[in-house]
């Protein structure tokens, strides 16, 4: 099983930020519509390191940190205990973001490949999601993109080989869930934060989701 042990050093330096889409979706947003939605989910005067109208703990705001040697630039590591996502950069650093993970045993640690990335995706709940959350039934044929869509403004699609796991790293219209266990399996991010991350993540990158059950022990 993957562990979280010493895969990131937490030396902090402040950083200032300058379910599969249905194949026959009803509509696809235009470039101007995407831009308008991006403006709606980006707070006025947005600065990634300090802007926080969502009221999340300040440790969940984006930070540039020092990465341990040997980590591959471009890869993503999700520390499910601390609720952090790290995107490894060239030069020995990583960008760290706060996340929410899945409730209970719905969280699935493992090694995944990002085979697809989408701006303003559609969302279709699985049958098991509808069974657990009957209110999702109205979206069984898909939820159109937009700021209230369950996948938010951006989504990375996680695969094992050529198999879609239906797990995503995605934006959320529920930013106050960041830091908690809230989703049906996916990793959630604040939409403004995943919008910053999105252009820096390449299709084919590896995403490591570490166990949420590992204990944190002091190092001497």
Question: What does this entry look like structurally?
Answer:
The chain is mainly beta and 220 residues long. The chain has one domain (8-19, 32-209): Beta Barrel (L,D-transpeptidase catalytic domain-like), CATH 2.40.440. The protein contains three helices and twelve strands; from the N terminus they run E-H-E-E-E-E-E-E-H-E-E-E-E-H-E. The strands form two sheets. A ten-stranded mixed sheet has the order 1-2-5-4-3-12-7-8-9-11. A hairpin with a 2-residue loop joins strand 8 (154-160) and strand 9. The longest helix has 11 residues, at 31-41. The radius of gyration is 17 Å and the shape is globular. It starts with 7 loop residues before the first strand and ends in an 11-residue tail after the last strand.
Give me a quick take on this structure.
The chain has 220 residues and is mainly β.
User: Which fold name fills CATH's third level, the topology?
Assistant: L,D-transpeptidase catalytic domain-like
What's the mean pLDDT score? 84
The figure for the number of domains is 1
CATH superfamily: L,D-transpeptidase catalytic domain-like
Radius of gyration: 17 Å
**Record field, number of beta strands:** 12
Distance between the termini: 24 Å
List its traits.
single chain; 220 residues; mainly beta; L,D-transpeptidase catalytic domain-like; 3 helices; globular; disordered N terminus
